[in-house]
Amino acid sequence: MRRPERVAELVREEIVQIVGFELDDPRVASVTVTEVKMADNLRDARVFVTVEGTEDERRVALEALHHAAPYVRRQVGFALELRHAPLIHFVRDTVEERAMRVEALLAGIVTKDGDSTAVSADTEPPADKEGERPPALES
Fold first, then answer.
1. For residue 47, which of 27, 74, 73, 24 has the smallest C-alpha distance?
2. Domains of the chain by start residue, with CATH
3. Which helix (H) or strand (E) holds 89?
4. Which of 54, 85, 89, 139 is spaced 20 to 30 A from 28 at the CA atom?
5. Percentages of the chain per state (helix, strand, coil), in multiples of 5
């Protein structure tokens, strides 16, 4: 594992503690830190977060995080004893939202017979009209 990846994991763990326990702002109560990506020179950190709630609540939570970024940067610098504390850039992580949208689209796919079916990785493929199972899809 490269050094930026190791430092990113340490920074993520520290930011989880700071956001979860040190920030007394109720606007960030529903924030979850999912990932941190560090620049190769360790000067910038993109912190990906998910926020539960409505679109307005998400916007307000991100504004609160942007406001708290200098404090978070200082705390990370003190805790990890880095020569240069990285600039913290909070970014909304939309991976889960996009995954739910894809699942909804897949669930809405209509087969030839007009039946709506959902495809799941842990279920067997449906039987065809003669009672035989179609060949398994190869990944």
1. 73
2. 3-94 (3.30.300.20)
3. strand 87-92
4. 85
5. 45, 15, 40
Instruction: Give per-residue pLDDT as tens, 89-114.
Output: 999 988 887 888 888 888 888 544 45
Identify the band that residue 9 occupies on the pLDDT scale cut at 50, 70 and 90. very high
Matching residue, tokens 């995080």 = 65
- In SS3 terms, 33-78 reads as EEEEEECCCCCEEEEEEEECCCHHHHHHHHHHHHHHHHHHHHHHHH
- Look up residue 95 and give its amino acid: V
Gap between the Cα atoms of 125 and 66, Å rounded:
47
Note the pLDDT tens digit of each residue in 10-66. 999 999 999 999 998 899 988 999 999 999 999 999 999 999 889 999 999 999 999
Give the CA angle between residues 9, 103, 114 to the nearest 5°: 170
CB count within 10 Å of CB 104 equals 10
Residue entry with tokens 């993520």: 12
- 44-51 and 31-38 beta bridge pairing: antiparallel
Q: What is the largest CA-CA distance in the chain?
A: 69
